[in-house]
Amino acid sequence: MQTKKSNFVLTVLICLIFVFMMPGCQNTSEPVMEQPKTSEDTANVDVEEELSVTTEKIGLIGFLSGGALLWGMDQQQAIGMWVNEVNIAGGLEIDGKRVLLETVAYDDFSNTAGGLDAMQKIILQDEVRYVFGPILSSGTIAVKDIVNENKVLQFSTCTSDIVHKPEYPYQFVYYQAGYEKAYVVSKYLDEKHPNVKKMVFVTLSDETKAELDLVTSMVPNENRELVDTVLYDRGTTDFYPVLQKALASEPDLILLGSLPTSDCASLAKQARELGYQGLMGATVGGLDMDAFYQISGDAGIGFFNTSLPSGEYAPAEYEEFVAKFRKQNGRYDTFAGTIYVMTQVLEQAILEANSLDTDAVRAVLDSGKEFNTIIGPVKFGGESYYGRNSHLIFNVGVGVLQAVDGVGVEVCDGAYSVEY
């Protein structure tokens, strides 16, 4: 009897082994990645469900060469940091899948044609649905039709009202708009430099007219007069003739527009060499103050610029991000921080939509929902001003250049919120 029972058990075991070795029982699913577990997860479950893995491309179009290379570096490094963080964490969990990210980058060679060519490749050739850039406003205006026709979500720094229009619903601006920068500079001058009576605005001849009009109409007031506007051509390195024209009216303030760091620093240095002792600043935002200081030297001390709030005006998370970014890249400016904020917003919008469909994500961005970021809560707004919620609303700070151990840093001297 015992022998028969043993034989029966042995037969059952052999059958089970045979069944599990059959091809139909083998795992033929796509590669899987284990979902990262929290302590709460491990306390409540014994077995984690495995998710299939896909990849989503994130497009980058910007300056990878030329005089404005630093802004292109900011974009690559900030988005690269975000992509690495997402992938190290196991990707984004969307609709029952793990989504890893990869970047596709193109140089727009700092011109409009380059931006359009890059966008055509990134959409039609690489089939990218989410694109950062071009950085130039003129480049973003040039790509508006191909972006919207293909329902690609584009995030840009364009300060022109054109791309904010309701007929271009797939374009979103995460940078300080011309209206915003003009408001912040005006507020800063009212509070910190009420003795400024005469100002000259100096900017590029190819900048969008919308920003120039906004700055020259909003910054002056009943006590502060705009006495001249001086334009110069992109590529200029000898600014003495430009400054001699600007200084002819003996201004208390030389205000610069959306200029590259190298131009701002050279203008500041050459203005001091010509004997100018007054206030200098810019509306551009995102200047690399370390690079600025390397060019301008002590002539740039006291130069102000719109930026992200820092120090007492910003959450501790922002200061931690700055330290981390500087450690990884050896440098930092607030343009990089602004880009990183936009990546945080995009990630939260995708997770909220539980989809990579651009219409679903666009609806979340346009809803007025607040997103948590390193600089605090932000949201897309501007419907009453632009006709849709196309512009990222956040506190804008005014940073003043100081030198610390031979390194130029911005010290925040005020932060203001702008509602549209």
Mean pLDDT: 86
CATH H level, superfamily name of the largest domain: Response regulator
- Biggest sheet architecture: 7 strands, mixed
Give the strand content.
15-25%
**Pairing-aware structural class of the strands and helices?**
alpha/beta
CATH topology title of the largest domain: Rossmann fold
Radius of gyration: 27 Å
Query: At the first level of CATH, what is the class of the largest domain?
Result: Alpha Beta
Poorly predicted segments: 1-48
Apparent shape = globular
CATH architecture of the largest domain: 3-Layer(aba) Sandwich
Count the E strands: 17
Integer tally of domains: 2
| Portion of residues within helices | 40-55%
Terminal Cα separation, in Å?
A: 89 Å
In DSSP terms, counting alpha (H) and pi (I) runs of 4 or more, how many helices? 15
